[in-house]
Amino acid sequence: MGRWSVQAGEVYRGTERVAVHGLNWFGMGTPDRAPHGLWTGRSVESFMRQVRELGFTALRLPLSPQVIRPGYAAAPWARAYGPDGRSVLERVLGEAERAGLLVLLSFHTYDPNRLGHDLPGRPFGDGYTKADWLADLRTLAELAKRYPNVLGIDLCNEPHKLTWRAWAKLAAEAGREVLKTNPDLLVFVEGVANASDNGGYGANWGENLTRAGELPGIPGGKLVYSPHVYGPSVHHKPYFGAPEFPANLPHIWDVHFGHLVDKGYTLVIGEFGGRYAERDRLWQDAFVDYLLARPIRGFFYWSLNPNSADTGGLLHDDWRTVHEDKLELLKRLMR
């Protein structure tokens, strides 16, 4: 299949340019240690087939150490796919490969009991050490050798408690460990939040790449910057209430992450989404316009799941019916 690389905003598998049009499917980073929705009676295969038929090419899977390491029981409704989270993860990776879907493995939280607005905001702590984090990333990199549809590893979800300087140092070290273990992969690095320079505009967790640049030891052809960007559905920002909203947003996005395109870096949006109603609908429409204009071609929408409290999902609460307005929005990015 060839090695994964990036160049001028595009993702390549060998010499083949690959479109990364993805969805987040969460559950394996929670105490359930399995993708959510399986309790409905739908199979992993059924979800994968629907995702592919809708035109998406990739899934981002948020994980915790209790899925990376064997021995932590999966929820009873997922036991058909294995007794523990690790075996469920491997089954999901295999089904994704058979469905023709790419996968981004994301280290979501070291504590699966801390989710949503309680995410720890750093890759280690509370008894889970830096050595533990690096070892778990190496395990994922080794696992990916068996699944050529895995294009990369997202090193840490939303390190919002860290300054950019602190996070960049950790990300560079972690990225080197990943590539030393598996040089075929891409390294995805998210932004921080507001503990360091945000250009004067409050940033979402994972959005702030204002000071980003080279990371020592990570080749430019392996580095993907992956901001998380949200609108009024998730967290209010003063500039959402400005009279010129949403026309004021492109400048703010340029400050936070868009400037990296001009410097030759590749960006893939790791998360964006919302209820897609009222002002959030205006925000999402403006964001898709911005991605098309920049252009930033890759994305992972949050989320396939309808049980995301802030955003809802691409699927309605029956876990089957598609939110057609959201799909039409995303189709603009998939042309």
UniProtKB/TrEMBL annotation:
The keyword Cell inner membrane does not apply. One of its GO terms (molecular function) is cellulase activity. InterPro entries: GH, Glyco_hydro_5, Glyco_hydro_5_CS. It comes from Truepera radiovictrix (strain DSM 17093 / CIP 108686 / LMG 22925 / RQ-24). It is an enzyme of class 3 (hydrolase). Coiled coil: none annotated. PROSITE patterns: GLYCOSYL_HYDROL_F5. GO terms for biological process: cellulose catabolic process. This is cellulase. PANTHER family: ENDOGLUCANASE, MAJOR EXTRACELLULAR ENDOGLUCANASE. Keywords: Carbohydrate metabolism, Cellulose degradation, Glycosidase, Hydrolase, Polysaccharide degradation. It catalyses: Endohydrolysis of (1->4)-beta-D-glucosidic linkages in cellulose, lichenin and cereal beta-D-glucans. Residues 22-308 form the Glycoside hydrolase family domain. Its EC number is 3.2.1.4. Belongs to the glycosyl hydrolase 5 (cellulase A) family.
